[in-house]
Specification:
Elements: H1 3-32, H2 47-80, H3 83-94, H4 98-131, H5 139-170, H6 175-197, H7 199-202, E1 205-207, H8 212-223, E2 231-234, E3 245-248, E4 255-259, H9 260-265, H10 268-283, H11 286-308, H12 312-317, H13 325-335, H14 337-381, H15 390-396, H16 402-409, E5 415-418, E6 421-424, E7 433-434
Parallel strand pairs: 2-4
Antiparallel strand pairs: 1-2, 3-4, 5-6, 6-7
The protein binds zinc ion.
Length: 456
C-alpha cells in the first residue's frame, strides 16, 4: 500500500477513534451517575434536587452524543469521499491569490462548523438551560453574542491565518519560526488587552464598590501579600444564574473578575475563599507556566508543519494532486489527533495540579473552610455532577473533582479566615483568638518568597 493510502486510512481510523473515545467516556459517566454520593458531599442535594441533577446531566449527555455523531458523519463523509480535493479545486478556481485561497479553504470549515453547532447552542441555551432555570439570556442578547463571537473569531483567526500563509509565500524555509514569533506576539497581546478590548464587547465591568466586602477582600489581600488594585464585578447575570470568578492579565493589567451572580449567592467570607484560590494561581505563577508550555508546544507544532508543508504524499492522502499550504496543514492536523489526545491528558493533569496548589494556598491562608463552602454552594446551584468517573476526570477535567477538593480544603487547620480577619481556633472549643492585622505579614509559613520575573 502506498504511503498516501496508508495515511488516508489512518485519518479515517483517527476520526472514528475520536468519536469512540468520546462515546466510551459518556457511557462511563452515565454508569458512574448511579454511584453513591461521596461522604463529604452528603446532603448537598436533597432527593428531589438530586433527581433534577441526574436528569440535567442525562440531557446534556444526550445532546453531546447527537452533536458528536453528526460531526462524525460529516467529517467522515467529507474526507472519505474526496471533499478536500473538491474544495481545493473550488478555491483554486475562485482566486489566483495564494493567501486568499488559504483563507477561503479554512473559512469554509469555520462557517460549516458554525452552522452545524448553532442549532445545538440554541437548543442548549433556550431549552435545556431554560428548563433547569439557568438561562437568563434573551434571543436578542443571544443573537448579539453569537454574531460578535463569530466576527471576533473570524477577524483574529482569519488574520493569523492570512499572516502565516503570507509569511510562507515569502520564506518557505523559515516561515515556521517567523510565524511562531508573530503568533506568540499576537497571543500575548490579546491576553494583555483582553479585559479592555474583548471582554467589553460582551460584558460591563465595574470596580467593586466600597463597603464591607471590599474591605474584607483588601484586608485578606494585604495579609496574603498581594497587591490588589483591580477587583471588578461583571454583569454575567444577564446570561446565566451560574456563578464564577477568574483571574486575568499580567503586569499592570492583572485583575480579579467576580461575576455579579457570585456576589449575590455567596457570603463575603466565601467570596474571600474564592479570591484566595485565585491569588494562589497568581502567586504560584500558573499563568506564566501555562503560557510558556503552550509556547513550547506551538513552536514544536510549527516546526513539524514545516517538515511536511511541501509533501506531495500528505496532499495525496486527501486525494489532492498538488501540495499546498492549506491542504497540507489540514491533513497534518488530522494526523496529529492521537498526539492531541495525549497532550490533552497531560494538559489536564498539569491544570489539576495547579488547582490543587491554588486550593492549598487558600487553605494555608485560613480560607480552607470558606472556599469549600463556596465551592459546594456554586456546584449545588449549577447542578454539578458529584460522581464523575475517574477515567472521565483524567480525560476531561481541568479541576479535581468537587469531593477531592472539599475533602482537602476541609481538613483540620487551626487558623481560619472569618469576618475580615484571621482567627486561631480554640483547642478547647472556647472563643477563637483574633490575629491583629499588624501580625499578618510573615505569619503563615506556606507562602514562600516569590521567584520569577519582576512585576508579576
Ligand atoms: Zn483555579
Amino acid at each position: 500500500m502506498a504511503l498516501s493510502q496508508f495515511l488516508y486510512w489512518a485519518i479515517i481510523a483517527f476520526i472514528v477513534a475520536d468519536f469512540a473515545i468520546g462515546l466510551w467516556l459518556t457511557i462511563l459517566n452515565a454508569k458512574a451517575s448511579t454511584w453513591p454520593v461521596p461522604k463529604v458531599l452528603e446532603g448537598l442535594y436533597d432527593d428531589e434536587k438530586y433527581r433534577k441533577q441526574q436528569a440535567y446531566a442525562s440531557e446534556n449527555r444526550k445532546i453531546g452524543f447527537i452533536t458528536s455523531s453528526i460531526s462524525l458523519v460529516i467529517s467522515l463523509a467529507f474526507f472519505a469521499f474526496g471533499g478536500f480535493a473538491w474544495l481545493d479545486g473550488v478555491v483554486r478556481g475562485m482566486t489566483g491569490s495564494y493567501v486568499l485561497r488559504s483563507l477561503l479553504f479554512f473559512g469554509f470549515f469555520f462557517v460549516v462548523d458554525f452552522l452545524v453547532s448553532l442549532p445545538f447552542d440554541i437548543y442548549s441555551t433556550f431549552s435545556i438551560e431554560q428548563r433547569y432555570g439557568f438561562n437568563k439570556s434573551t434571543p436578542k442578547l443571544f443573537a448579539g453574542d453569537t454574531i460578535k463571537n463569530f466576527l471576533l473569531n473570524a477577524v483574529i483567526n482569519g488574520g493569523l491565518l492570512c499572516l502565516a500563509t503570507w509569511i510562507y509565500t515569502l520564506s518557505p524555509d523559515w516561515f515556521w519560526l517567523i510565524s511562531f514569533a508573530a503568533f506568540s506576539l499576537v497571543t500575548l497581546g490579546v491576553q494583555y488587552f483582553a479585559s479592555e478590548i474583548i471582554v467589553p464587547l460582551f460584558n460591563k465591568q465595574k470596580p467593586l464598590e466600597e463597603g464591607p466586602l471590599r474591605d474584607s477582600i483588601e484586608a485578606f489581600a494585604k495579609m496574603a501579600g498581594f497587591q490588589l488594585e483591580n477587583i471588578y464585578v461583571m454583569d454575567e447575570s444577564k446570561r446565566t444564574t451560574k456563578a464564577n470568578a477568574y483571574f486575568t492579565g499580567f503586569g499592570k493589567k492583572k485583575r480579579v473578575v467576580l461575576f455579579d451572580t457570585l456576589i449575590e449567592q455567596l457570603t463575603s467570607d466565601e467570596i474571600v475563599g474564592v479570591l484566595a484560590h485565585e491569588i494562589g494561581h497568581y502567586k504560584r505563577l500558573h499563568l506564566w507556566k501555562m503560557m510558556s508550555s503552550s509556547l513550547v508546544e506551538s513552536l514544536i507544532l510549527f516546526w513539524l508543519v514545516s517538515l511536511i508543508i511541501n509533501s506531495p504524499v500528505i496532499a495525496a492522502a486527501a486525494g489532492c494532486t498538488e501540495p499546498s499550504f492549506w491542504i497540507n496543514v489540514q491533513v497534518f492536523l488530522m494526523l496529529l489527533s492521537p498526539i492531541g489526545l495525549i497532550q490533552g491528558l497531560a494538559d489536564n493533569a498539569v491544570s489539576r495540579k495547579h488547582e490543587r496548589q491554588a486550593d492549598d494556598f487558600a487553605f494555608h491562608h485560613g480560607c480552607g473552610a470558606s472556599e469549600a463552602s463556596a465551592l459546594k454552594k456554586m456546584s449545588a446551584q449549577a447542578l454539578s455532577n458529584l460522581t464523575p468517573h475517574p477515567i472521565v476526570v483524567r480525560f476531561e477535567y481541568s479541576h479535581p473533582t468537587l469531593a477531592e477538593r472539599v475533602e482537602s480544603l476541609e481538613r483540620p487547620f487551626p487558623i481560619i479566615w472569618k469576618e475580615g480577619a484571621l482567627h486561631v481556633k480554640s483547642h478547647t472549643g472556647g472563643k477563637d483568638t483574633r490575629i491583629p492585622e499588624e501580625e499578618y505579614v510573615g505569619f503563615l509559613p506556606s507562602d514562600k518568597p516569590r521567584k520569577g520575573p519582576k512585576g508579576l
